[in-house]
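[Q] Does anyone have a clean structure-token version of this?
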Amino acid sequence: MSDHHHASISVSGVLPGQPHIEVHTDHHGAVHVEHHGAVHKEHKEKKHGGGGHDSDSSSDEEKKKKHPDLIPIQGYESANFEKAVVLAPPPPPVATTGDAAPQKFDSMAGITEDQAKKALLKYVSDHCCFKTECAEKMDIKKMTTAGALHYVLETFTEHREIKCVFEPYKNQPVDGPNAGPAPAPWTVTCNPDSEFKDHVKKVEVPHTAVVKNCFHCKGKGHVKCKNCKGDGDKSCDSCNGTGSVNVMNAEGQPEDSVCPHCTGGKVKCSTCGGDGKVKCPVCDGHKNLKQFIQMTCAFKNEKDDFVHEKSDLPDHLIKDVKGELVFEQVVPQVNPITGYSVDDINKNSARLIEKHRGSYNDKRKLKQRHQLRAVPVSEIEYHWKDVKDRYWVYGKEHKVHAPTYPQQSCCTVL
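[A] Here you go.
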């Protein structure tokens, strides 16, 4: 088996001496190598007889190499360096009845006229061009209190991918095949940091790591400097490599003089300091690479909801205000709410749960949660001068919806 392997590294940019290679690293330290402008068509290279090649030079075949050679791991044969492989999820959990949904809803208490006026005054004062006279002197004619219901269904899912990666070997621990067989993909421990929140975690698959010579520098830790092509010096820009410059003598006549910026038309390479070689950006000068299979676990919370609200208050306003939690259940797989006094809740609970059961089948469904919240809503009808209007106070924080408030401009005269 070849000694070339792929890995992860904290370097980015074009590799010296390898104009078609770029090395990128992600925030987990994994390195990704890309070739730009390289010929991808496979062909056999003719072997050259006699005389060895420069230890820092690469054949055309080596220049095309994008990554180390793969080392097959049982159960992970599809893992590669080019593209992440999606893992098919295990079967979903069995539905459970869990706690019974509540059958009784206690209506939330309404607000007083004084609270309704204070809420409107605060709403008006938060708008710089609104005038307060109407809110201060209006005559409330009718208040209707109702409780909006907000049903939310969440399915917490996990999506797993595997990919071969590598990193410079700096004597860090190596958990390789000699420690035992790699665990099955969906048995690898990767627990979410928090439930019902989107986030991504990356873990090393146990018993998949190996250490090999760096494929790019062939285990030397350095590569030929691209700037000077390994010579250690470059042609002087001041004299164009001639070693002499034209100056005016004391008599005002032109004559050749030794260039003060170089020696014999050459200057030391500023990139490599005259060595003709630079630190290998793939292994970071450490000569060896640790190659392993990296698993990416993407946790995502899939969410749907339904609002039951009978007034003309826009439903979307209910979703972001505080209410009272009437019911909550967190289980591997929920069942619909049944027998609730508001049939819209029963029907839409069943509809959304059926939708989630038929969706997200490319992911593992870890848990489900459904909630029912009661949000207080009061509709207030009032008179002011010749105006007859209404507004709404909703949520425990007494938010106001007053789209037709009559004094919305400082220039309004009523």
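[Q] Thanks! Anything notable?
[A] The two ends are 90 Å apart (CA to CA).
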